């Protein structure tokens, strides 16, 4: 399969919907609107599957409309790739028709969010203060890249606050370990638990005939990954497995659709942090010494850099010290 350079496109306020193969759609987040994660729609023929549902019902409603428009039927399955809210807090929009599926480990990591959302509903003042703080930072920030990052964060939290009164978290109905197949009369998909990579129980969805793999947040393309809940060693190893797989096109949780070149860059990013951290520890330097230096290209220009780099270095420091 060869991806069309100019695929049919449907514009939502929150995402661009690209058809990357017949009946296979990718909803690419428009970050300026506060949407940071991607989603997917797959027409199986006699049934429709949705991969991830964004962070709020407000965004997910556009995904539901697009799904029904493109496939002429309601979604029968929703696959939640992992536990981070930007990929499943929109589930409720599909709850009248769909069966929700995740890995067992992802499910276990999703359940604590029920209490967190309840607390947010009862006391939204802390979130409102966070938005005010971000607005103040935006007003005084002179660096254009940091202003863009702040603008995304402000729009994201405002979307969440606007959704909060109507937000009802919908957990998966079914969980699995290992592999799972879902069949339609047009195509079948392979779903598998990747283990602890970006988070415990990351789920990938493959279309072998089209050589397309939806990888959720195992893929951050053209931006620094978020590694707080990750196992960096497993992440690097799994990326290398994918580079040797039969899949050619990868739909990330964040960023544009990519190829094995994007996987290679992610491996290089993890290896770079491993080297920087080990060098700093061996030289008796603090983690701050890494944050004070510029990363080499292409990583220097990857978006959402500074805050994620700090989180990622801490994870690398902890893992490095545990290995000693």
Helix and strand topology:
Blueprint: E1 9-11, E2 15-21, E3 24-29, E4 39-43, E5 48-51, H1 57-71, E6 75-79, E7 99-103, H2 104-110, H3 113-122, H4 125-140, H5 144-163, E8 174-176, E9 179-183, E10 188-193, E11 203-207, E12 212-220, H6 232-243, E13 249-254, H7 260-282, H8 288-291, H9 305-323
Parallel strand pairs: 5-6, 6-7, 7-8, 12-13
Antiparallel strand pairs: 1-2, 2-3, 3-4, 4-5, 9-10, 10-11, 11-12
Description:
By secondary structure, the protein is of the alpha/beta class. The chain is 39% helix and 21% strand. The protein has helices at residues 57-71, 104-110, 113-122, 125-140, 144-163, 232-243, 260-282, 288-291, 305-323; strands spanning 9-11, 15-21, 24-29, 39-43, 48-51, 75-79, 99-103, 174-176, 179-183, 188-193, 203-207, 212-220, 249-254. The strands form 2 sheets. The protein has an 8-stranded mixed β-sheet with strand order 1-2-3-4-5-6-7-8. Strands 9-10-11-12-13 form a 5-stranded mixed β-sheet, covered by helices on one side. Helix 4 (125-140) packs antiparallel against helix 5 (144-163), helix 6 (232-243) runs antiparallel to helix 7 and helix 7 crosses helix 9 (305-323). Mean pLDDT is 92; it is low at 1-9.
């Amino acid at each position: 399969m060869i991806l069309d350079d100019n695929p049919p496109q449907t514009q939502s306020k929150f995402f661009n919907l690209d058809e990357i193969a017949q009946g296979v759609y990718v909803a690419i987040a428009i970050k300026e609107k506060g949407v940071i994660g991607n989603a997917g729609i797959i027409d199986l023929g006699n049934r429709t599957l949705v991969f991830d549902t964004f962070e709020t019902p407000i965004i997910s409603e556009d995904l539901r409309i697009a799904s029904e428009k493109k496939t002429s039927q309601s979604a029968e399955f929703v696959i939640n790739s992992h536990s981070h809210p930007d990929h499943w807090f929109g589930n409720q929009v599909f709850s009248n028709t769909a069966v929700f599926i995740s890995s067992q480990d992802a499910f276990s990591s999703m359940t604590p969010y029920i209490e967190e959302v309840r607390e947010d509903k009862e006391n939204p003042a802390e979130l409102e203060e966070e938005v005010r703080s971000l607005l103040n930072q935006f007003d005084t920030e002179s660096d254009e890249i940091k202003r863009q990052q702040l603008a995304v964060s402000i729009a994201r939290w405002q979307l969440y606050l606007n959704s909060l009164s109507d937000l009802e978290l919908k957990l998966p109905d079914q969980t699995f370990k290992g592999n799972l197949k879902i069949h339609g009369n047009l195509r079948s998909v392979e779903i598998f638990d990747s283990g602890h990579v970006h988070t415990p129980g990351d789920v990938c969805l493959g279309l072998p005939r089209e050589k397309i793999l939806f990888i959720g947040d195992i893929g951050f393309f053209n931006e620094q990954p978020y590694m707080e809940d990750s196992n960096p060693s497993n992440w690097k190893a799994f990326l290398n497995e994918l580079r040797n797989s039969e899949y050619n096109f990868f739909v990330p949780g964040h960023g544009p659709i990519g190829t094995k070149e994007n996987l290679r860059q992610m491996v290089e990013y993890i290896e770079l942090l491993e080297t920087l951290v080990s060098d700093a520890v061996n030289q008796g330097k603090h983690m701050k010494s890494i944050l004070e230096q510029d990363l080499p290209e292409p990583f220097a220009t990857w978006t959402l850099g500074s805050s994620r780099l700090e989180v990622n270095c801490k994870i690398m420091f902890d893992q490095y010290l545990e290995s000693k």
